[in-house]
Design brief:
With 1325 residues, the protein is an alpha/beta fold. The chain has 8 domains: 7-64; 70-250, Rossmann fold; 257-426, 3-Layer(aba) Sandwich (Rossmann fold), CATH 3.40.50.300; 498-631, no CATH class; 758-851, no CATH class; 867-1009, no CATH class; 1022-1088, no CATH class; 1105-1323, no CATH class. Helix 44 runs parallel beside helix 47 and helix 48 runs antiparallel to helix 49.
């Protein structure tokens, strides 16, 4: 055995109990290690080292004891009377609760009581305060009472300031947040032998956290003493939390306070409906009668304070000053409250004056009973600041404010019943806060599960869930990780190191990726303090003007950055006092700016330690906003378009115009103070959503929705709709909708569906690409299979049967059995087939037998031909069996260039295969009395077709004749009703171009001709041009002709185009000053155009203008008579006469000429007589116009309202007979008739007033004929010239008028309504 004495271990261990806690713990662990050393020599060496360290530690502790300051107690403080009782309790118990009102002295004296007990030597006395200002002022006070300089025996530490000397400090004042942060590095708080938690009744988050942590720690640290001080609000709750720890009550220095209840609505009062401001003024007036003393009024917010201050100032109370007091006021304005003054002062304060600040000299309190209390809303996941009734405890705190120096009066603006019905205490902050920060710190500190943590009031599990969700949103916690110790992600670990809110910390981390750390840290620091821009109540406009230069139209965040840059510039240029003055002048809070810079510096220091690179280059705004967005993913919003549309005219005031849809269906509006308020963008992110009268987004920026998805991959929900085959991509795609917390980020994006649902994608690929053939591919099997299917389908279309081709399911099963599961698109198929076809080329080939269900021999080419002949023309015929489709049935393909040659002839007979069905349906369409003689219709149809010769005449004509012969019942072809024949039995005409592309299709051939007339003309022109090119000559069609230079003009133009015989009719066309040659579809159009073209060519070449010549022959009186004409000018009238004269002469000399020689002869004859004929025409027209003018005068003279319809009839007649161009339109031959019609109209007007009834009866008969004639014109082929036989009927109606209204004048030929009807019937096409 070794010579070294083993008891040395036993000797050292007791000595450790006298060392500092840290030394004892450290050396104790080393002793444990030494115990395990086997070799005696080695153990002896280690023990010698430990003994030396123990000796040094004993010296340190002795020195520390010697420097303990002497303790005295101010006798006037209530705590001093109870110091022995408190000391005994602390000595005998591990935890003591000291309850006493503000002013009892507990805060300053308890650390001294602990020192007197010998505490503070082995470890410091840690003393926490809820506020930084309190930590400093208490430290100053205690140091002063102990007569030691601050920072020695009494130190203090708050964020950014550390005045603690570990070797010399006995009492360390700090904020509760500082102690909380120390837990991470000093798990068992061995720096302290005593901990005092002051103002514990405030129940802030940090206080609750410390109390819970201490409850866990005490069993491990039996030497640790804990003193909890609280106002007299529910100290029992703390006692219970620490196993019924003793409570020592210390009364405060208070005077009696009288409470008066003055509810707003007093039942027996005169003013039954007063508002809060009136009630406050009433209370102030009541208190003025009570004597001197200041008044403290509690209000819920700045706006209420301003409104109340305005109302009080208007009252002009004598020797009275009104002062606001709220957190956002500048320090100077806050400080005014504490300065000495004369007269009465009315302080209007928020609940900041309840416990935090003691306003001196207050004798009276007015308490409306409300406050804004920060509350976390589960629904919107935002911190709200609603106005709520305060608890009884808060109301009593308010009351206690006026009993500090003398008796006081508290007027409550609510009833006593209301007071008694209120909750006893305000909820602890933990019950109304987002716990993300706490959960993050707890998780980082390894304090286990928040739900199992011993809180005094365990937080609502919903709040815990929201906190966890926020951390998951920020990527700090991994929801998939079940072990709480492993849930913290790398991001979470980094977030916990940054000394700001987790949202802000997340922004900084993202900024590191985006190269904008400096800017984002500036903004994050700004968001973690109160806004340094001040808006004093009386100088808001000036403040706003000063701050406007920092504004950015698209982002309130950039305003912070602009302000920061400005501040930095000013600080460089100015001295410190000059800079302070500038801040004051420009409404900037110097202390908050300093705090902002401190947080930034601290962030920068921590960031550097974490390896985050701070770039000195300015970063683009987009990158900054993307980084900020990383922390604000649940604070995005999309403009609610529906809301904006629904909003009425008053919407702007309510913010309806800028209503946004936010996360979890919350609706918010941009706060009026935001730069984005006037021009709200489509998407925004907001740093804070605060609910007051509504949910407001306060600090905002415009964002692009595409920024969101990469940041929120772990949060977005993707839904897919309408999976469909896309031919161009040869894949199944679907529309993806991406939402984040219900806000649509991507409304509709086409994505490959194969990876999302391979099974459905494979099915859709086989059905669409292979079964339906909707695929562009060069695989041989595919083309062969499609060709085989088309052949079999064609049989079905011809026979109008659906039972020949096998169904799609058979084809699907064929492919399904042969194609492997992984093939979900064209690309997958190609790579598989490349290998497969080498082994088995016919693996996917169809066989004809597998496609045909039964024999299709009944379908022959004779019954279902491929082409249709009409004269020299031959048309392709196709079949479609698709009921309901426009082209269901037989389709005849008509090339555009022969459209003018095709007639309806024969198409009513249909193809032989469908003819029997057509005849059957036509028999069924007969009127019932006739139809019943032809039953059953199919039998009569068969009999008819056995005997009839097809295509010789219209089908219905043959049927009427043959069926009448069978039964003997007479009827006509008009009795058949084609409208009742099913559409598929009527031929569809498809007009195609030279490449067989469809231009139009319809059952009505004439309608197609009209619709495609311009294109048909163009096709004819192209055919003529191509023909001329082939023959090497000029085209038939010409332009700009001024004389006949075209040789002979053939009456028919024929050529071949695309295998079809093209036929057209050339003619001269009047183009105004020149003529051209154009091709026409029909001879009728040719004749009309040729006449006008010839006339233009002759007239333009006559050297003497006949119209001018005729004009010169007239006297001025005659010219005056002719000036009243419908043409608008005498010259236009003469031109009309000359044109009519030319028409007469051309007709007299045999009409237009078709070759140059004939044209010259015609020209010479017309030229010789045109002037005389024009002069004679003018003479006749002069008489016509005289008759017309007489008629017009008489028409205007008759004014009887009873005759209005009759007069309108005459007006219509005159406008139709005498109008611009009437001479040419009427023709010289009819001018005498026109004269007669006008005289007849004049006579009718003379007789009309004497026999209205007779005139009306005859007028109605004429109208009847006019309607019949109008109907006839509608039947004429549209766009074609109206035949002269039809135009003559119009003149028959004029003759009918003469026979009715001026019989004595006589008619040109016998006329009656029956003759006119007969003529109309004969003219129907």
């Amino acid at each position: 055995m070794s010579n070294h004495p083993a008891p040395a271990l036993g000797d050292l261990a007791p000595r450790l109990t006298e060392l500092s806690l840290r030394d004892a713990h450290r050396l104790g662990r080393r002793l444990e290690g030494a115990r395990r050393i086997r070799k005696p020599e080695a153990r002896a060496a280690v023990l010698a080292e430990i003994e030396a360290e123990v000796a040094r530690a004993e010296e340190r502790i002795a020195l520390r004891r010697a420097h303990a300051p002497a303790v005295t107690y101010p006798p006037q403080l209530p705590v001093s009377q109870k110091k022995d009782e408190i000391a005994a309790a602390i000595r005998d118990h591990q935890v003591v609760i000291v309850a006493g009102e503000t002013g009892s002295g507990k805060t300053t004296q308890i650390p001294k009581i602990c020192m007197e007990l010998g505490r503070g030597v082995r470890g410091m006395i840690g003393h926490t305060q809820p506020r930084r200002i309190a930590a400093r002022t208490v430290a100053e006070r205690v140091a002063e009472e102990l007569d030691t300089p601050l920072g020695e025996a009494v130190g203090w530490k708050v964020r950014f300031t550390d005045q603690v000397n570990p070797d010399a400090t006995f009492v360390k004042l700090m904020t509760d947040g500082i102690l909380l942060a120390e837990v991470q590095t000093d798990r068992e708080l061995r720096a302290y032998d005593t901990i005092i938690i002051d103002e514990a009744h405030e129940r802030s988050l940090n206080i609750d956290f410390l109390l819970g942590y201490l409850a866990q720690l005490l069993p491990k640290r039996p030497d640790l003493k804990v003193v909890i001080t609280s106002a007299t609000i529910d100290p029992e709750r703390f006692s219970r939390h620490f196993g019924d720890a003793p409570i020592i009550e210390v009364s405060g220095r208070t005077y009696p306070v009288e409470v008066r209840y003055r509810p707003l609505l007093e039942e027996d009062g005169d003013d039954a409906d007063r508002d809060q401001i009136t009630a406050i003024i009433d209370a102030v007036e009541e208190l003025q009668r009570e004597g001197q003393g200041d008044v403290l009024v509690f209000l819920s917010g700045e706006r209420e304070i301003r409104d109340t201050a305005d109302a009080l100032n208007k009252k002009n109370f004598r020797f009275t000053e009104v002062l606001p007091l709220y957190a956002r006021l500048s320090h100077a304005e806050q400080h005014r409250v504490f300065q000495p003054h004369t007269g009465r002062r009315i302080v209007l304060a928020t609940n900041v004056a309840e416990t935090s600040l003691t306003v001196p000299g207050i004798r009276y309190v007015i308490d409306p009973g409300f406050a804004r209390i920060s509350r976390y809303s589960h629904r919107t996941k935002v911190q709200r600041l609603p106005i709520e009734a305060v608890s009884q405890a808060s109301a009593n705190q308010r009351k206690g404010r006026c009993g500090r120096t003398s008796d006081g009066i508290c007027i409550r603006l609510y009833s006593e019943d209301d007071f008694l019905a209120r909750p006893e205490f305000t909820d602890a902050e933990i019950l109304r806060t987002n716990l993300a920060s706490v959960i993050l710190q707890m998780t980082a500190a390894g304090l286990g599960d928040i739900e199992k943590f011993p809180f005094i009031d365990p937080p609502d599990h919903r709040n815990i869930r929201d906190g966890v969700h926020l951390l998951q949103e920020l990527g700090a916690l991994d929801p998939a990780q079940k072990d709480p110790r492993k849930r913290l992600t790398d991001t979470g670990r980094k977030l916990a190191q940054l000394p700001v809110d987790p949202r802000l910390a997340r922004m900084v981390l993202e900024a590191d990726k985006n190269g904008c750390v400096r800017e984002v840290m500036v903004i994050a620091a700004a968001l973690s303090i109160q806004d340094p821009r001040e808006r004093p109540a009386d100088k808001q406009t000036q403040a706003d003007q000063q701050h406007a230069r920092f504004k950015d139209e698209t982002s309130d965040f950039l305003a912070h950055l602009n302000l920061w840059r400005y501040i930095r510039e000013q600080q460089k240029e100015r001295g410190s006092s000059s800079f302070r003055r500038m801040c004051k002048q420009e409404y900037l809070n110097f202390l908050r700016i300093r705090e902002w810079q401190d947080i930034y510096s601290q962030l920068r220091t921590v960031a550097k330690q974490m390896g985050i690179h701070v770039d000195e280059q300015d970063a683009p705004a987009d990158r900054i906003h993307v980084s900020l967005l990383a922390g604000l993913l649940s604070h995005i919003g999309m403009k609610d378009v529906k809301e904006s549309k629904d909003a009425g005219p008053g919407a702007r005031r309510d913010g309806g115009r800028n209503e946004y849809l936010g996360a979890r269906n919350a609706k918010f509006a941009i706060f009026p103070g935001s730069a984005l308020f006037k021009k709200p963008p489509r998407f925004v992110m907001s740093a804070e959503l605060v609910e007051t009268s509504r949910l407001w987004a306060r600090v905002n920026a415009r964002i692009e929705p595409e920024w969101v998805e990469p940041l929120a991959e772990h949060l977005v929900k993707r839904t897919y709709s309408e999976p469909h085959w896309e031919k161009d991509r040869a894949a199944v795609t679907a529309y993806e909708k991406v939402t984040l917390y219900g806000v649509p980020i991507v409304a509709q994006r086409s994505v490959d569906y194969g990876r999302i649902d391979p099974e459905l994608s494979r099915e859709l690929f086989i059905r669409n690409a292979l079964v339906e053939g909707d695929w562009r591919t060069h695989h041989k099997f595919f083309a062969d299979n499609r060709r085989l299917l088309t052949e079999v389908e064609e049989l079905e279309h011809r026979a109008r049967r659906r039972d020949i081709l096998v169904d799609d399911e058979t084809l699907f099963d064929f492919y399904d059995r042969r194609i492997p599961d992984h093939v979900v698109s064209g690309a997958h198929f190609d790579s598989w087939w490349k290998r497969k076809r080498q082994e088995q080329p016919d693996h996917l080939d169809f066989e004809r037998e597998m496609l045909i269900r039964e024999s299709a021999e009944a379908v022959t080419k004779a019954d279902y031909p491929d082409s249709w002949r009409q004269g020299p023309l031959k048309f392709r015929v196709t079949y479609q069996f698709e009921p309901g489709a426009d082209a269901d049935g037989v389709t005849v393909h008509v090339p555009l260039q022969v459209l003018n040659q095709v007639t309806d002839e024969g198409f009513d007979w249909q193809i032989p295969g469908l003819r029997e069905e057509v005849v059957t349906e036509l028999i069924r369409s007969l009127p019932k009395p006739i139809r019943r003689n032809y039953v059953p219709a199919p039998n009569f149809a068969k009999r008819f077709l056995d005997t009839a010769v097809p295509m010789q005449e219209p089908l219905t004509t043959t049927m009427a004749r043959e069926l009448k012969r069978m039964v003997g019942v007479p009827f006509t072809a008009d009795d058949f009703d084609w409208a009742k024949v099913p559409d598929h039995l009527r031929i569809t005409f498809r007009i195609v171009d030279e490449r067989r592309r469809k231009l139009a299709e319809d059952k009505d051939l004439e309608a197609l001709k009209l619709q495609l007339r311009p294109k048909a003309r163009q096709a004819l022109s192209q055919a003529a041009a191509a023909s001329a090119e082939r023959q090497g000559g000029e085209s038939v069609e010409r332009k700009g002709l001024t004389d006949w230079t075209i040789g002979a003009l053939s009456r028919v133009f024929e050529t071949r185009r695309a295998g079809q015989p093209v036929k057209a009719y050339p003619a001269l066309v009047d183009d105004g000053d020149t003529v051209s040659v154009r091709l026409f579809d029909t001879e009728a159009e040719q004749a009309e155009a040729m006449w006008r073209g010839s006339r233009r060519l002759i007239l333009r070449n006559i050297p003497v203008n006949p119209a001018k010549f005729a004009s010169e022959k007239l006297t001025n009186a005659q010219k005056l008579a002719l000036s009243a004409n419908p043409h608008g000018s005498i010259q236009a009238l003469f031109d009309d006469c000359a044109t009519a004269a030319a028409d007469r002469l051309i007709a007299d000399f045999g009409g237009p000429a078709w070759d140059e020689e004939s044209h010259r002869k015609l020209y010479d004859k017309v030229r010789a007589e045109i002037v005389d004929t024009t002069v004679r025409t003018v003479g006749q027209v002069q008489q016509v116009l005289a008759a017309w003018q007489a008629c017009e005068r008489r028409l205007k003279a008759v004014r009887s309202p009873a005759l209005l319809p009759n007069l309108q009839d005459v007006r219509g007649q005159l406008d139709a007979l005498v109008k611009p161009g009437f001479v040419t339109e009427t023709g010289l031959r009819r001018l005498p008739d026109l004269m007669r019609y006008l005289i007849a109209a004049d006579r009718r007007l003379q007789q009309m007033p004497t026999n209205v009834q007779r005139d009306t009866t005859r007028m109605e008969k004429v109208r009847e004929m006019q309607d019949e004639y109008a109907w006839l014109l509608e039947q004429m082929p549209q766009g074609r010239p109206v035949p002269s036989s039809v135009l003559d009927i119009r003149w028959m109606i004029e003759e009918l008028r003469v026979s009715y209204f001026a019989h004595a004048l006589g008619t040109a030929h016998p006329v009656s309504d029956k003759r006119i009807v007969k003529a109309i019937d004969a003219a129907v096409p």
